[in-house]
């Protein structure tokens, strides 16, 4: 029995259908389960390279089908991560707005086709258009958004019975639910309305700290630098706790109060102690409300275990405090708790309805994404970048990589299948020595290009975790970076790069059984240093999602200051590429990028024609480019060799070098693609026969 769960938007990567409601607009994913067991899962962002992709997960679906060796017509049920009445209501609202602007009609016109309204018909049409196979409507179902969150956690927990809390911003006109799971059934105890959203409570506050949607985790990292006391009384006006675990948040009070009592931070401005204190107060308020809810229901239901899901469940600090509180004997947090995880829940709900529930087993890993491919395929990709990379094959890649790291290198590490969810768990990671405190600042500046206060996570051998971290009794498995735990006092000075300002760390324990390659690397580092821990952060820069393919890894390696790259059995370093090496590359525009000229005011309040690159990303800014660069980009036809384009511009060497530098900056921002041309690939791999 094959069931496919999907989340995400209802338009394609090259479309910008701004009328579609935000509820369908982020974290696209596809998950395929066979008889209740996951066989493939990936977020659309990993494949289309758009963070928090708000597009229909076409590539993710194709990956799942290919992995299983099936066609769409072989799928028994496709389950969508929202209830059908909710989806229809949102689409009806969109239709009304379109009719107001267009006069009349019942079709949504896109770049490719006219799509009939009605959620099931729309999904049916998109699947048929993308995969050439029209599923009968009886094989398409819709599931409650928060039910999908809840099932994604409980079905993966291994618990026979537990309390379940699913909380996020919004979905299905709600912001969460509380339920009891027993066997394969979930009984809802309470639903939280959208106007009582803890996710929106957090989001509304961080707007005044210069942050927005998807930045919540940054504020969680900032909070330990602050003191909640100065703003505690103000924050207590923003919410109210009531009997029986009840609560109320007052979103409309947040803005006026903070405007009166806080110097509002704009994006890019430095943080003041006020901003740090507000972050601490916000975190304290969230924790107080959640504890109030679960404490009451723990007592009334007698449940000794807790499952968490929904975007708020990514608040690892809150999760850690629940863990240490002793309220529950065990807590399971779904690793992909955000909306991508709803694709998992939707697939499992459909499978259960068809008589194939998930086995009652604890989730051990989420390496469900695309594999690197064969060693031969990896080597061919590396060969294609011969002017930019040098590499060698190692018979003991773990030892070689451990030597690099022990000698101070910061490396990219790419192995096996990619992880499902927002955490790099040792297959698509940037790794470094966890001991020198300077490594934190170095990686924040040279690779991630992000705020210096942001902490990094430790990956520790499971069997050594309790020596370095103060773990609750009986707990030694933390494979998903879901909990902030205390670093032992005696180890904090040693682990300077991964110990946060409050003496904590967001822990990942690594099992030899779940990830032998990563375990071997950490163990090799332990043999050299006595420390069974590595600093682990996601392999990406600030402009892109986590890398997935070998090509992604090479692009990120070449556009950051990483010292080395380990991909499969290959050790990779950078060459000092010449201008000729660069101009031999092909350049192309991603499908989400387009070129525009517009009249705008420039310096001196003069109106001039400006040249811009725009994308179909949600809330993305346009990027201005010079007229010369715009002229070059306009000459691109699909894929164009960069040298040919520069030749057409003229022979001026200084101008050529300047345009090349501009293109490299755009590449760093992923607004253009630089890559070996097809002709170069053929030539390189005919010259270098794979092992």
From TrEMBL:
Highest taxon, organism lineage: Bacteria
Domain Carbamoyltransferase: 23-348
Keyword Methyltransferase on entry: no
Keyword tags: Plasmid
Annotated Carbamoyltransferase C-terminal domain residues: 402-574
Keyword Zinc-finger found: no
Pfam families: Carbam_trans_C (PF16861), Carbam_trans_N (PF02543)
Entry-linked InterPro entries: ATPase_NBD (IPR043129), Carbam_trans_C (IPR031730), Carbam_trans_C_sf (IPR038152), Carbtransf_dom (IPR003696), NodU/CmcH_Carbamoyltrnsfr (IPR051338)
UniProt-listed Gene3D superfamilies: 3.30.420.40, Carbamoyltransferase, C-terminal domain
Similarity annotation: Belongs to the NodU/CmcH family.
Protein name as annotated: Carbamoyltransferase
Protein species of origin: Sinorhizobium numidicum
């Amino acid at each position: 029995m094959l069931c496919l769960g999907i989340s995400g938007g209802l338009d394609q990567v090259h479309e910008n259908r701004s009328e579609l409601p935000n509820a369908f607009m982020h974290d696209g994913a596809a998950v395929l389960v066979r008889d209740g067991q996951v066989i493939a899962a990936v977020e659309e962002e990993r494949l289309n390279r758009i963070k928090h992709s708000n597009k229909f997960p076409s590539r993710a679906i194709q990956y799942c089908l290919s992995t299983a060796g099936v066609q769409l017509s072989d799928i028994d049920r496709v389950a969508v991560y929202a209830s059908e009445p909710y989806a229809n209501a949102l689409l009806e609202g969109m239709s009304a707005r379109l009719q107001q602007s267009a006069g009349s009609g019942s079709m949504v016109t896109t770049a490719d086709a006219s799509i009939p309204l009605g959620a099931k018909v729309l999904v049916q049409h998109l699947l048929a258009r993308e995969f050439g196979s029209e599923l009968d409507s009886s094989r398409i179902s819709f599931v409650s958004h928060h039910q999908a969150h809840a099932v994604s956690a409980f079905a993966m927990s291994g618990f026979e019975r537990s309390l379940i809390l699913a909380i996020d911003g919004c979905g299905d006109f709600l912001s969460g639910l509380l339920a009891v799971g027993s066997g394969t059934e979930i009984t809802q105890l309470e639903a939280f309305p959208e106007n009582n959203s803890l996710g929106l409570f957090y989001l509304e506050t961080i707007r005044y700290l210069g942050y927005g949607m998807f930045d919540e985790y940054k504020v969680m990292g900032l909070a330990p630098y602050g003191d909640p006391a100065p703003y505690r009384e103000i924050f207590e006006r923003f919410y109210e706790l009531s009997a029986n675990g009840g609560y109320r948040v007052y979103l409309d009070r947040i803005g006026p109060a903070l405007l009166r009592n806080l110097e509002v931070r704009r994006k890019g401005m430095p943080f003041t102690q006020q901003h740090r204190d507000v972050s601490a107060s916000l975190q304290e308020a969230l924790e107080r409300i959640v504890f109030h809810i679960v404490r009451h229901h723990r007592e009334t239901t007698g449940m000794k275990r807790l499952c968490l899901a929904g975007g708020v469940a990514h608040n690892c600090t809150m999760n850690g405090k629940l863990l240490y509180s002793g309220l529950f004997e065990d807590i399971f947090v779904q690793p992909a708790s955000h909306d991508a995880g709803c694709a998992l829940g939707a697939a499992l709900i459909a499978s259960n309805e068809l008589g194939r529930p998930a086995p009652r087993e604890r989730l051990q890993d989420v390496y469900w994404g695309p594999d690197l491919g064969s060693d031969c395929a990896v080597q061919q990709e590396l060969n294609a970048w011969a002017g930019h990379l040098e590499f060698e094959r190692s018979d003991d890649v773990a030892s070689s990589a451990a030597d690099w790291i022990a000698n101070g290198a910061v490396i990219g590490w790419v192995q096996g299948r990619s992880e499902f969810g927002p955490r790099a768990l040792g297959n698509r990671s940037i790794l470094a020595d966890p001991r020198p405190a300077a490594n934190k600042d170095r990686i924040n500046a040279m690779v991630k290009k992000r705020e210096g206060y942001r902490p990094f996570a430790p990956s520790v051998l499971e069997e050594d975790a309790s020596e370095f971290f103060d773990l609750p009794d009986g707990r030694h498995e933390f494979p998903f970076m879901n909990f902030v735990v205390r670093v032992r006092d005696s180890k904090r000075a040693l682990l300077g790069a991964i110990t946060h300002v409050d003496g904590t760390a967001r822990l990942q324990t690594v099992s030899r059984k779940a990830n032998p390659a990563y375990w071997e690397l950490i163990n090799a580092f332990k043999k050299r240093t006595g420390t069974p821990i590595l600093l682990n952060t996601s392999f990406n820069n600030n402009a892109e999602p986590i890398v997935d393919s070998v090509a992604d890894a090479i692009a990120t390696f070449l556009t950051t200051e990483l010292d080395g790259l380990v991909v499969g059995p290959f050790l990779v370093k950078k060459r000092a590429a010449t201008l000729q090496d660069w101009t031999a590359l092909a350049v192309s525009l991603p499908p989400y990028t387009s070129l525009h000229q517009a009249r705008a005011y420039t310096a001196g309040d003069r109106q001039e024609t400006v040249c811009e690159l725009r994308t179909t990303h949600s809330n993305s800014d346009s990027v201005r480019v010079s007229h010369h660069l715009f002229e070059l980009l306009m000459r691109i036809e699909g894929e164009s060799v960069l040298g040919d384009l520069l030749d057409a511009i003229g022979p001026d060497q200084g101008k050529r070098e300047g345009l090349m530098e501009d293109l490299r900056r755009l590449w760093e921002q992923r607004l253009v693609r630089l890559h070996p041309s097809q002709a170069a690939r053929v030539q390189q791999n005919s010259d270098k026969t794979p092992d």
